[in-house]
Automatic annotation (TrEMBL):
This is Uncharacterized protein. It comes from Listeria aquatica FSL S10-1188. Keywords: Membrane, Transmembrane, Transmembrane helix. The chain crosses the membrane at residues 12-39, 51-72, 84-103, 109-129. The lineage of its organism: Bacteria, Bacillati, Bacillota, Bacilli, Bacillales. It comes from the Bacteria.
Length: 132
């Protein structure tokens, strides 16, 4: 039974790592697109600065989570038990991201549904690691 939880934890950790890498890539594309549209769009400098800061923070966080989850995956693949602190940090970051998205941009189903699925993946990963 523990082998099943270990396999599930490895799979979920790899999925979250790849999704975090994809989110970082999308954030980099967003950062570049903001930089490229600076001269074409007449928007105040504070809005542009806030968008660049927000996108930069997302890039850093998602790259960090991708690396951490790849490390967790590698350790689980070797059979070494890991702490579930990475999963809790990921869940907390996603909850914080949803709250800020609702406060700043209003409620949208897409803004809540995707992070909710990622939170569920994080919970499943933490549960599987704890059981293995």
């Amino acid at each position: 039974m523990q082998e099943m939880y270990l396999k599930q934890a490895k799979t979920i950790s790899l999925i979250i790592a790849l999704l975090s890498l994809l989110q970082a890539l999308l954030a980099i594309i967003g950062f570049v697109s903001v930089l490229l549209t600076l001269s074409a769009v007449k928007v105040s400098q504070t809005i542009i600065r806030e968008a660049l800061i927000n996108t930069s923070i997302n890039i850093i966080c998602f790259l960090l989570f991708a690396v951490l989850f790849f490390v967790v995956y590698r350790r689980l693949r070797k059979g070494v038990t890991t702490s579930i602190i990475v999963q809790f940090l990921y869940i907390a970051y996603m909850i914080f991201s949803v709250i800020l998205g609702i406060v700043n941009g209003g409620f949208s189903l897409q803004g809540v549904l995707v992070p909710l699925m990622l939170i569920i993946l994080g919970i499943a990963s933490a549960y599987s690691i704890k059981k293995s």
